[in-house]
Amino acid sequence: MEGAWKRRLDDRASVLPTLEMLERLRIATYIHRDVGIRAELDLYLEKWGQLGYSHYEVLYFAFHGIPGAIEVGSETVTLAELAEKLDGKAEGRVVYFGCCLVMKDKDAVAEFKNTTGAKAVCGYTKKVDWLESAAFDLLLLDSLMEDDRIDARFNRMTRNFPDLTKRLGFVTHPSYAR
Question: What is the pLDDT of residues 99-109, one digit of tens each?
């Protein structure tokens, strides 16, 4: 799910090319939804939680963020509010916040993970450069499609791209870093 990056209607910045590349390389399939208002977010979260979509193992939020929340249009949606919508529906799945600062609120992230049943929650603790984070998204989403244990997938990212993970403030909950 992706929010608007700028206020202009003609802005074309999007994570969609990253997802398209992963699909063209037969690494992953995806559903991409532009989310401009809270009602759209709620609708798409409800649908994602349905049994028919259980094979989509990664929920990727691409929005502006603040510690413990994402920005959807003119509204701030907290991790607690997102968790309420996903209550138990992320069981065994990964939730990735490709958003600045969201993971900085460790308590909110821990509560989100517990409420949703997610296998892991990951994202950024810092303000990130759009292009650097887009490159990281491609690498991370590729890694998340592997069959290894989840800890091995995250450790591979921090081992192979230590400077980038540190610069972006990439973290996971639970923490798998060695």
Answer: 999 999 999 99
- Tell me how far CA of residue 57 lies from CA of 4, 173, 178, in angstroms: 24, 16, 24
Rounded CA gap, 54 and 90, in Å? 9
**Mean pLDDT for the stretch of residues 41-50:** 94
Rounded Cα distance between 51 and 54, Å, is: 5
| Domain span including residue 97 | 16-173
Q: What is the pLDDT of residue 149?
A: 86
The percent of residues above 90 in pLDDT, for the chain, comes to: 72
Q: How many domains does the chain have?
A: 1
Which two structure tokens, joined as six digits, stand for 62?
């691409």
Output the pLDDT for position 177: 52
Cis geometry, peptide bond prior to residue 174 (ω within 30 degrees of 0) = yes
Does 169 reside within a domain? yes
- 6-16 burial, b at 16+ Cβ within 10 Å, e below that, comes to eeeeeeeebbe
Task: Return the CATH number at 128.
Answer: 3.40.50.1460
